[in-house]
Amino acid sequence: METTKEDKSLHNHVALKIIGLITGILAAIVIVSVIFAKTVLPIYRYNSALALAEDGDYASAAMRLEGLTYKDSEEKYAEYRIKAEQGAASIEE
User: Fold this and answer.
1) In a 3-state reduction of DSSP, which class is residue 2?
2) CA contacts within 13 A on the Cβ side of 93
3) Dihedral over Cα of 14, 19, 20, 25: its sign
């Protein structure tokens, strides 16, 4: 069976639609990933750090907050580092 120009044109049109669809899906995945990384992860890290500090694990809480710029995380980081160092010093005595 011989392929006509119309068949090739239709095949190219379908291929372009598929490529466009895949590109759109990949773009959506990237956008959702960026939004997740910028909003959900900082909230999770912040809340889990507060929970660790509430349990007295200031060293782990400080590690969770390190480099985070959400709410008062920088102040909490400094506070928890001091408390962790004080706790470590009291254990060594």
Assistant:
1) coil
2) 6
3) positive
pLDDT tens digits for 62-84? Answer: 999 999 999 999 999 999 999 99
Please give the C-alpha separations between residue 83 and each of 40, 48, 57, 58, 90, in angstroms, as whole numbers: 27, 17, 9, 6, 10
Does an H or E element contain 1, and which?
Answer: none
Q: Which amino acid is at 14?
A: V
pTM for the predicted model, two decimal places: 0.70
Please, are residues 68 and 42 in contact by the beta-carbon 8 Å criterion?
yes
C-alpha distances out from residue 22 to 8, 10, 15, Å: 21, 18, 11
Tell me, rounded to whole angstroms, the distance of Cα 64 from its chain centroid: 13
Helices (H), the chain: 5-35, 41-54, 58-65, 73-92
